[in-house]
Amino acid sequence: MIYKVYYQENALEVPVRENTKSLYVEGESEREVRSLLKDRKYNIELIQLLEGNHLEYEQASPNFKVEEL
């Protein structure tokens, strides 16, 4: 399954919407994705499962690239 992760790079700063970034991660569950990203010290705002039409829409984006963790 592919998840889209919305995050702030610095976990110590107050989250600001304009600084929110996203990445795509493949994993079996949201818990596994959080575990894979724990070393990066991100402030994770949301982990969203992508499937069906939503996944197809994201894959059509030129920025779609699944992170290798």
UniProtKB/TrEMBL annotation:
Keywords: DNA-directed RNA polymerase, Nucleotidyltransferase, Transcription, Transferase. Its EC number is 2.7.7.6. It is an enzyme of class 2 (transferase). It catalyses: RNA(n) + a ribonucleoside 5'-triphosphate = RNA(n+1) + diphosphate. NCBIfam families: PRK13667.1. A non-essential component of RNA polymerase (RNAP). RNAP is composed of a core of 2 alpha, a beta and a beta' subunit. The core is associated with a delta subunit, and at least one of epsilon or omega. When a sigma factor is associated with the core the holoenzyme is formed, which can initiate transcription. Belongs to the RNA polymerase subunit epsilon family. This is DNA-directed RNA polymerase subunit epsilon. It comes from Psychrobacillus faecigallinarum.
